[in-house]
Amino acid sequence: MLRRSLSRVRASLAFGLMVAATSHAAFAYSEPADPPPAAPEANTESVTILDAQKRGLIEIDARGAGDERVRIAVRNRSDRRLHVIIPPGMVASSATAQAAGGGAGGAGGAGGFQSMGLGSISNNLGAFGRFVDSSTAEAGFKSLPVKGDEADPAAIDVPVEQTVKMILPAVCLNYGLPTPNGSNRFRLVDVDDYTPDVRARTALRTLATMGTSVGVAQAVAWHTFNGMSFEQLAALADGKPINSYELALAARFVQTIDQTANVAAFDPSFITRSRVFVQLTGRPVLERAIQAMARDLDGKTILGLPVTVVDPSVAPPAHGPSLLLTIELIQGENKLIAGKGTMRNLTLDGVWNLFGRFGWKDVNTLESLNADKLAGAVDRAVASAFVAAKPSKRSQTSTTLRIENRLPFTLAGIVVRTGDSAGDPKISFEGVGIGPGRATPISIEAAGGKVDRVILNGL
Questions:
Q1: 53 with 157, same domain?
Q2: Coil, strand or helix: which one is 80?
Q3: Residues 169, 173, 177, 180, Cα dihedral to 10°
Q4: Are residues 14 and 58 in the same domain?
Q5: Number of domains composing the chain
Q6: Which residues contact 103 (CB under 8 A, 6 or more apart)?
Q7: Which of 91, 77, 10 is nearest to 45 (CA)?
Q8: Dist. CA 385–CA 357, nearest whole Å
Q9: Considering only CA atoms, which of 187, 230, 223 is closest in space to residue 204?
Q10: Which range marks the domain in which residue 418 is found?
């Protein structure tokens, strides 16, 4: 579970991560105290996990742990503290599974067990990947730079002669092979060394960087690594459940990659484009103000995604899944502006289906309302209507909330308000990765909480 104090903080090292440093085989839940600064360990080197292994600085023991995670133990054999970075695009490889499927590790083959595509150590249960902002990610990225940042959520610190154990979220890369268990050992490799298929490599590295839910990542993996069609995935009667919204997101992601001229130089910002459309309407007396508001709103962000404002009389051409928010501005007798709206979801077959309704009370006059305030009001109204926070457990100091996502997109982040007043403290959780139609518990140090706003990244 995620647990945070009453401040805006990052939700890292979640997913029941169990990162621990210990010199014996048993798990612990905290790193040992650092030695005095004079000790050799006071010198820290930042290094990627495969490079550190190649140089003999660390020993790695990677083992199976079911169909959604991999257990990894890293032992420091150097004379200095190591800041070990786990870049996106890593595979826990079963040599037998690779050989059985050939090429991209396809389905079938006798014996062996699944190879696993790895997410990030910063993930909570159900999430997959680092959730890097797509607007800052580089096209064709291979890995993130080694910066030596001690706060890097995708890195672990391993003291001299100590072992750090962790659990990483993972997806199966060999449909039909047995699920790996604790007796199965993996070899960690970069996806570029696992398969020659550029499309599959790009898919795994992009998802592990941008972040999504495990369900979306699994659908993409079975399609790109094993050649399963989305019709086949939808028809699966057994195995890992993947819902229709996750399949739609996975299909759109793969389509976007396939439409890129140079797949290896795929631009992750393509995923966020043309996902949120807005139609603004109102009574004729507000027409001039609405036209000005529409011009200013275009290009702003709602739900963390860029907005495209479109003509209220025409359904916008788009590729699903996308959202169409039709918003009516209403001026009351007190001259304050309220709003009500409908949300439509564009399916992969090009049909805009009514998804639900939302609205907010009047808080601004027409003169004080601007595009930023309107976007904020829509953000809060949509979050309130389609994402619920239900208390499931309370203690003297904290509350566990079950966050239920009813939007057709994965939640990349959420902001929880600890009371009913607008001035109550807010807690920010990043990289939560709650898939559409899924729920995840989070813990806050407060008597309760309500979802104030949510962030989507298009996956």
A1: yes
A2: coil
A3: -30
A4: yes
A5: 3
A6: 195, 196, 197
A7: 77
A8: 7
A9: 223
A10: 384-456
